[in-house]
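WARN retry 2 of 3 for item q-0093 after timeout on previous attempt; input resubmitted unchanged.
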Amino acid sequence: MINIILTDIIPIFIIMILGFIAGKRSVFSPENARIFNKLVLTYALPAALFVSIVRADREMLFSDLKLTIVSLVFIIALFLWAYFSCYKFFKHTQSEAAVCALIAGSPTIGFLGFAVLDPIFGDTANTGLVVAIVSIVVNAITIPIGLSLLAAGKKKEKMNTGAAAQPSTNATQTAQEPKEKGLMATIHKNAVLSALSQPVSWAPILAVLLVLFGVRFPKILDPNFELIANANAGVAVFAAGLTLSGLKFQMDWEIVYNTIVKLILMPGILLLVGWLIHMDAEKLQMLVLAGALPPAFSGIIIGSHFQTYVRAGTSSLAFSVLLFVITAPFWIWFTRLITS
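OK item q-0093 returned
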């Protein structure tokens, strides 16, 4: 665990602090942070998600149905719970709740998955299986769901704002609008299609379809994606620190709640369900630790790109990364105790 803290957790803080200092010293501006986030969201993150998923194969997905079903059902369920609780309990808008769910309800499996699991369990087929399945659930399912909820929320907010600003002319303007034709008009009007048109959505879905149809992506092409994909984590964390430099750090019950959902509730439920259905002990230990990872950086990137839930999201990330140093050893010890 000391090695994981030194090589995986502390670098996150160092890069985030560098971004924070750069913002405070005006080396980069908040506009630069949005440009960095656009780079990551449009190119680096989709490439990273695509490469990480196509390395799996169809046999891996179906080799352990218990692992696949538990990951699929309960990670999505906890993602939706994070959305619901943010919307209902903390009275955020639907778009803000969507970004909250992308943070509090999604582990950063793509960035820290192998880095945390390999030193503990070894570079084995089981490790690759757990990381691949959780990556597919997070990157190919919860991210598109989150983007769809975000797009729907933004559309609703825009309609409400327009109706409030011009209630008497809204119907007339709508009637006078020219009828748009083609796919782009449909995407613009439909929140789900709008979300799916984003590279961060369709890239992992395309990768899953390739895996399910047994199409092997040539490894010789990996470097073409990895070069830009390698910029994903570093630029995203730096941009998070840069964004935080322009905001007042927030510490309240909502941040604490988001951290509890991510670091305590998610791994706890995965452990309970996996134990009740008698999952393989080693795979269950890996799944619990994967669920206990800090929030996915994709949520921070998406929130910053759309200027939605930025301060609370970035504060939740920073606080969760800090507490992961304590919760990770606990879940390793407790899961081994239960499964033994």
